[in-house]
Amino acid sequence: MSQSLDTTFSALADPTRRAILSMLLEDDMAVTDVADPFEMSLAAISKHLTILTRAGLIAQEKRGRVKWCKLQPDAMRAASVWMQGFGQFEPVNLDAFERFLATEFPDTPGS
What we know:
By secondary structure, this protein is an alpha+beta fold. Helices cover 52% and strands 13% of the residues.
């Protein structure tokens, strides 16, 4: 599951890819329509789509001469479940947490 989460979060880390996913919430789209609102080449968009496909977040299929993209919402389920686990806690004070880790694990590199 860790590898899958790493791949998902890596794909979601880029704002262009998140924008593409938001666009695909509405409906399936042709690759050229996905690329339309972005000021980048079709090749650059294609690279983003490949990353999203490898992460399982979208599927691409050829319909005639046109390649279409479709959102795969179930692919985000594991990431969503993982993140929901943090909703039950108070917000973390990262400075205090870092100090706690430094006292509990003083031999850790970077301490």
